[in-house]
Amino acid sequence: METYIIILLCVASFFAGFVDAVVGGGGLIQTPIALILLPNFPIASITGSLKIPGISGTSVAAFHYLKNVTMNWKLLVIMALFSCGFAFLGSELLTMVSNDFMKPLLFGILILLAIYTFIKKDFGQHQIKELTETKMIFLGIIISSFIGFYDGFIGPGTGSFLVVAFITILGFDFLHASANAKMVNVASNIGSITLFILKGKIIWLIAIPMAFCNAFGGWLGAKTALKKGNGFIRIFFLIVVIGTLIRFGYDVFFKH
Fold first, then answer.
1. Which residues of 24-36 are buried (b: 16+ CB within 10 A; e: fewer)?
2. Which of 66, 232, 94 lies closest to 151, judged by CA?
3. Distance in angstroms (rounded) separating the CA atoms of residues 150 and 252
4. Sign of CA dihedral 165, 169, 170, 171
5. 240 half-sphere exposure, CB direction, 13 A CA radius
6. pTM to 2 decimals?
């Protein structure tokens, strides 16, 4: 493999780590770049390899958030277990079938999400505590199961979807949603990585250096998000959602 390819992948991984730490969706940066730079590798091998830098940056960001943001540990442990298990199943399915049929559905959801976030100025600005603990755990199980499976099967945008779920369904603000989403995302990455290692799908030559770059980006992104607060995260979230729309729009309408 050419050295310049590894360097470009590392640069992409740094920016992916930064974006992912702030609001999720870092895979939307490094996944398409990896697919372009590594055209001769199987999709499953690329996806599996990118899980290593993904978990590296997410773990660093999660640790940084842990020191500054209050977590609901009972909810998180339950969600993490379901997220990990269903991500494993999603990755197993990825090695057998194509996931292209999901993209038109996601494209429509993202359009609605971008419009809602732009119009509703107070979206994710405050925490709303209206759910009982039992109901919150029940909803958390559903969220982590579906999004965990999505992470293993498709991947890009998982962090953003988790943030949205924490805000719209569980009533968190942007900062607490980003922090808690990181913990669940780490668990789903563990599930996927376990499957890909067992299948021998990881290209360690690119996975290791990308992991260091992603971790640095994750540290810087989490530090920036904590300093800037909810308003900054909301704007960043809109940018990432629009970027996601462009990516999925291209896949749905132009890529054959």
1. bbbbbbbbebbee
2. 94
3. 18
4. positive
5. 29
6. 0.78
Write the secondary structure of the chain as one string of H (helix), E (strand) and C (coil): CCHHHHHHHHHHHHHHHHHHHHHCCCHHHHHHHHHHHCCCCCHHHHHHHHHHHHHHHHHHHHHHHHCCCCCCHHHHHHHHHHHHHHHHHHHHHHCCCCCHHHHHHHHHHHHHHHHHHHHCCCCCCCCCCCCCHHHHHHHHHHHHHHHHHHHHHCCCCHHHHHHHHHHHCCCCCHHHHHHHHHHHHHHHHHHHHHHHHHHCCCCHHHHHHHHHHHHHHHHHHHHHHHHHCHHHHHHHHHHHHHHHHHHHHHHHHCCC
- When mean pLDDT is compared across 62-71, 95-104, 178-187, the lowest value belongs to 95-104
Q: Which of 88, 121, 57, 67 is nearest to 191 (CA)?
A: 88
- What residue segments make up the domains of the chain, in order of their start? 3-253
| pLDDT tens figures, 155-179 | 777 887 898 899 889 988 888 888 8
- Phi-psi sector, 24: left (phi>0), alpha (psi -120 to 50), beta: left
